Amino acid sequence: MKVIDLRSDTVTVPDREMRAAMAGAAVGDDVYGEDPTVRQLEEKAADLVGKEAALFVPSGTMGNQVALLAHTERGDEVILDEEAHIYYYEAGSPAMLAGVQLKPVAGLLSERGPEVLRRAFRPPDIHFPPTRLVCLENTFNRGGGTVMPPEVMREIFALARERGLAVHLDGARIFNAAVALGCDVREFTRYCDSVMFCLSKGLGAPVGSLLAGSREFIARARRYRKALGGGMRQAGVLAAAGLVALKNIPRLAEDHANARLLAEALAGMPGMSVDLRTVQTNIVVARLTGGWPAPAFAERLAQEGVRCHAIGPNAVRFVTHRDVSRADIEAAIAIIGKVLAGAA
Ligand SMILES: Cc1ncc(COP(=O)(O)O)c(C=O)c1O
Questions:
Q1: Is the pLDDT of residue 290 over 70?
Q2: Which of 90, 138, 139, 141 to mutate to test the pocket of ligand 1 (most atoms within 8 A of CB)?
Q3: Nearest to 318 by CA among 89, 86, 4
Q4: pLDDT tens digits along 91-146
């Protein structure tokens, strides 16, 4: 049975071109700053997002955590959305590593974000932790892959600046946002001090993310990466895959079209509801309305060859990516319909 894996865009496997580039990569010891392929990737990444410098890290989580370490001191406060990946899915590492106090707020990653941020600010007071950083996420994973438009980011960035706060962007899927709006990624990244983006999601690399920011910030981040054990030696074999992955940016549009196709079909099925307004990129969040618990539904679907993630008691998430074709999506729609109808 063919398995259509829609759990995440992280399940993509490197293609032939990527594997060939990895095999042929020029390498050196990157901890000594001597890996030419890593350097090339870091320079290219910095240029793409309009920052002075970039740092290659093994994962998005490490990129975000190194950013928190480099922006803050122990005991500082970081404002972020209560559904943000950094708060929700990074194993409590902001407390464990940077020793910061997170202030999760509802709605920061919505169009009400600027108002939510205004209300989250507290005046300087000896009783309060000093607020140092605001974290944004674009696209917003638990929001269903929604795009925060550049105008909203601009307003949040200006508010943060007025207060002397830095802004870090968890841009794991920032290129999905740029492709969805048909604009240059810098339209988003100009409104943050640092940005992390992933190569190993829709872009298809097996490993790797980049953290970009000012030269001075990246020098600090480099030291924290080393402290966390993320100093990799002949990492050019991985960076080579990353360079090929960056060529996949324009094709993210196909994933978005596939997500739309899936979402519209699911929205019309009895027992399921989809808020089509949130389907803006490659993620579809669907709610089971007939009382079927999401984990049991996901398991049943997997038995029929379609994999998804239960992300709440009655919510499942489907993510499209380069290893699922339009025909796969059509097949998945038919299977999901049958399972929901109890006919599979
Ligand atoms: C928004 C967001 N940020 C960060 C990450 C972390 O990336 P990684 O899995 O490479 O640690 C993810 C992973 O899914 C994500 O969706």
A1: yes
A2: 141
A3: 4
A4: 999 999 999 999 999 999 999 999 999 999 998 899 999 999 999 999 999 999 99
Regarding whether 281 and 212 lie in a shared domain, the answer is: no
- Gap from CA of 60 to ligand 1 centroid (Å): 5
| Domain termination site, one of 197, 226, 247 | 247
Q: Indicate the number of domains in the chain.
A: 2
Half-sphere exposure of 293 (CA within 13 A, CB side): 4
Q: Are residues 216 and 263 in the same domain?
A: no
Ligand 1 binding pocket (C-beta < 6 A) is: 59-61, 64, 85, 137, 141, 170, 172, 198, 200, 209
pLDDT category of residue 342 using cuts at 50, 70 and 90: confident
Q: Are 13 and 200 in contact (CB under 8 A)?
A: no
- The mean per-residue pLDDT over the stretch 338-342 comes to 93
**Helical H segments across 72-195, by residue range:** 85-88, 93, 113-120, 150-162, 174-181, 186-189
Q: Residue 163 and residue 186: Cα distance in Å, rounded?
A: 23
Q: Whose CA is nearest to atom 9 of ligand 1?
A: 60
Report DSSP letters for 248-265, one per residue: GSTTHHHHHHHHHHHHHH
Q: What are phi and psi of 101, to 5 degrees?
A: -100, 120
